[in-house]
Amino acid sequence: MMIHVFPSGPLCSLRRALLVWLLPVFVLVGGASAGIAYWSYNQMVSTFMDNQMEMLAESLLVHGPDIMVPALTGDQVHEWGAYVVQVFDTNGQLLKSSWPELKTTLQTDDGFHDLRTGDMRWHVYTTAVKDVGAARRIQVLQSGEFRQHLAAGRAWTAIAPVIVLLPLATLILWCVVAVVSRAVGVIARQASAQDEHSIAELSLDRVPKEIAPLVISFNSLLTRLRDAFATQRRFVQDAAHELRTPITAVSLQLENLRGDFAPGAAAQRFDQLEAGVQRAQRLVDQLLRLSRQEAVGAEAAPRPVNVNDVLRESINALIALADQRGIDLGLETSGGPTDAAMLTCASGDLRSVVDNMIENALRYSPEGAVVDVRVMSHQGKLAIEVADTGAGIPEELLGRVFDRFFRVPGTDVRGSGLGLAIAQSAAQRCGMRITLRNRTDRSGLIARVETL
Ligand SMILES: Nc1ncnc2c1ncn2[C@@H]1O[C@H](COP(=O)(O)OP(=O)(O)O)[C@@H](O)[C@H]1O
Ligand SMILES: [Mg+2]
């Protein structure tokens, strides 16, 4: 049968497992060593003291009838375990006692006995009658409680180190587990910092030997993942690149053909055909842009960018679309024009983020809508919000619109579903993140990009 050190469940704790297994062992070993100490010391003390009692009794027996027995106090008897000597005549009459308070009769049998008087226990040695003419009998008694205390004291000294060890061992275990957990935490942070753009192997520095195999296999998984991403990117890049040439050729051919169509039904269908080809061209461009953006090292070097400038450029480029749709597009900055909000970012990345957010707001809002662009900076953090008055996005789809090619079903606006994916990866490279939320004051969407 297999013993499970960790109880099953997703959150089995190393610390708890160690404590659950080791502490009972400590307690058990402590208890056993105390028991053994008690038993062996009791044995030793008994033998030693029994010998003494016997020798004392025998030595007193050889004295004459005027034998003197030293007077004892109750303290000496109970606390110090002093031997109480009783002298009897052969009829069992008590002649002398070193502690008269003790009322015990002469034991009929010689040798060692255990007696009780009231709630006291006594260990007794009664002398053997050596010859028939012996005039006296002697009894030597010792407190049973004293002997027990002596052995118990010894047992305590045996268990004391365990009692000290127990909290100490718990503390040490706690600390060791904390150190290991910290090492694992460092690896976990390294692992969670990975994304498809920056897959780097986890460092094996300071990794406990026991955890190293996990890190090594995780690293090999990361390598495979990096290769898989690279292959996928190459494929998309190659495919988009290869598609671009024939699509450009088709679009040129269409342009040449345009003049051949007289106004009417055929010209209308020609327009649709041209729009379709344009859409395909746009899609291929976006795909190419996405795969290039994602290629490691393909991005331009980061440099300080003035956020307000980028926003103005973007709005200038999109104002035609806003006018065409009768949308009121406004920019609201937190400070004056000189109060520049700066961001260190690769050139083009921030523009890509802002363009996508504003373009979506313009394209997915009805004609005559209002689109507000706001810049907010607070405690060194920067946020740009684009709020529109469109229909917003169903809550359950808010997370999915960042997926490549995902589009909210039912929209008649043309698009590829790649815009937000492109924007999010550009934002990530700027150390930012895009989040979407529906407006609560009215219908509409707020797209927000902020520094992390
Ligand atoms: N401002 C918005 N209002 C409503 N829906 C939006 C808005 N922005 C994005 N969406 C939804 O998210 C989907 C994904 O957007 P995006 O990635 O830019 O792709 P595309 O615009 O090419 O469809 C869009 O198809 C649209 O349904
Ligand atoms: Mg879009």
Indicate the low-confidence ranges by residue numbers: none
* Widest sheet: strand ordering: 2-1-5-4-3
The largest pleated sheet is described as: 5 strands, antiparallel
Number of domains: 3
N- and C-termini, Cα separation? 51 Å
| Percent of residues in beta strands | 15-25%
By CATH, the architecture of the largest domain is named 2-Layer Sandwich
User: What is the CATH T-level topology of the largest domain?
Assistant: Heat Shock Protein 90
CATH superfamily descriptor of the largest domain: Histidine kinase-like ATPase, C-terminal domain
Q: At the first level of CATH, what is the class of the largest domain?
A: Alpha Beta
Mean pLDDT: 85
Q: Tell me the total number of β-strands.
A: 12
Question: Ligands in the structure?
Answer: adenosine-5'-diphosphate, magnesium ion
Helix content: 40-55%
| Total of helices | 8
CA-based shape: rod-shaped
Q: Class by helix and strand content?
A: alpha+beta
How big is the Rg? 48 Å
Order of helices and strands: HHEEEEEHHHEHEEHEEHEE
